[in-house]
Amino acid sequence: MSLAIRRASLAEDRQQMLELFERCFGGNNYDRRFDWHWTLNPAGMGWTWLIYEPGNHRVVGTTTVFPRLMYVDGNQVTAGQVMFFAVDAGHRSLGPAVMLQRATFGPVDSGDLAFCYDCPPHDEGMSTFDRIGMRPNCEMVRYALPLRSDEFFERRLGKRAWTKPLVVTANMLFEMRGRKRQISGLEICEFDERFGDEFSHLDRMVSKSGAIRANRSAEILNWRFRDDPACTEHLRDANKLRYQTLVARRGGELVAFIIFEWESNSRVLIVDLFGSRLADVGLSLLEATTEVCRSQSAQCLNVYCVPDSELSGLLRRTGFRQRERTARVVAYDGSNGRKGKHLTPGLSWAFSQVELGV
């Protein structure tokens, strides 16, 4: 059956899009976050395309490019992130996928975006880019730090009385492993207010030379970590909000912050670590986060970042170990692999979870 592609109308196509998301991704919280994703983004409205059957106009595929404010070698640009790439099971061939992928290049070719990027998590997701002849600009990997051994031994040995000494001994070793460093004049505390001008100031002050990274203004941070309807959720069986933030100040001035997400009652994902003098302050924030998570019975801390980045070096120094590849970042800036207008050779992709997805 032949298929056609068109731009979506959020008002008229919303219900079909939500039904497609549920069929392809599972879950049922897309309606609650729809307006937050599509209309409340401080960077502007996105571009959404639909693949449909011309005979009955049934939607069988969709994707969206959401605008994102980024820095490229010190210059702020509006880029786009490809998300909600979905095709019904009966139409999952390269043809519809390539149609959708090529559509995402349109806002870049028209000059509305400096570049767009997608983050396929596996080889299957790379197949459309392989067909087009595009390769990843960088790869993301998971770094992990075990905090407790309870789940590890329970999965492998079961919950038996004779395993308890093993768990207790391993947990004591994990606690002894943590290093407590003191930096004179540095104060670290939890932050649960709305992000203010000091965060925008920090974003402007931190060096952006030679790197590609997301904007972290107060407006962006509030949209992402305060206004998202999912942020106010508490974890099942625990009185924990989805996100927690720690800030580091010197003489009352904000110098760095870390944001981490409770993915479950026992697993925590560090979403962002950002600021000045991270070689020292970043280590203190990571160790403070480790203490907070351990005190709240977390079993493991995870971080996604680019190997050989500044963040990966901090993680290794704090005891994190590199695990599996989690995603590849594939970008388009109108050059399709040739020398581009913005993504020139030599720039580092300073990407972590905050750039990877929302």
Strand-helix topology:
Elements: E1 4-7, H1 10-25, H2 30-38, E2 47-53, E3 58-72, E4 75-87, H3 94-103, H4 106-109, E5 116-118, H5 123-132, E6 138-146, H6 150-157, H7 164-177, E7 186-190, H8 197-205, E8 211-214, H9 218-225, E9 243-250, E10 253-262, E11 267-275, H10 278-295, E12 300-305, H11 310-317, E13 321-332, E14 348-349, H12 353-356
Parallel strand pairs: 4-5, 8-14, 11-12
Antiparallel strand pairs: 1-2, 2-3, 3-4, 3-8, 5-13, 6-12, 6-13, 7-9, 9-10, 10-11
What does this structure look like?
- With 358 residues, the chain is an alpha+beta fold.
- It has helices spanning 10-25, 30-38, 94-103, 106-109, 123-132, 150-157, 164-177, 197-205, 218-225, 278-295, 310-317, 353-356, and strands at residues 4-7, 47-53, 58-72, 75-87, 116-118, 138-146, 186-190, 211-214, 243-250, 253-262, 267-275, 300-305, 321-332, 348-349.
- Strands 1, 2, 3, 4, 5, 6, 7, 8, 9, 10, 11, 12, 13 and 14 form a 14-stranded mixed beta sheet that branches.
- A hairpin with a 2-residue loop joins strand 9 and strand 10.
- It is globular.
- It starts with a strand and ends with a helix.
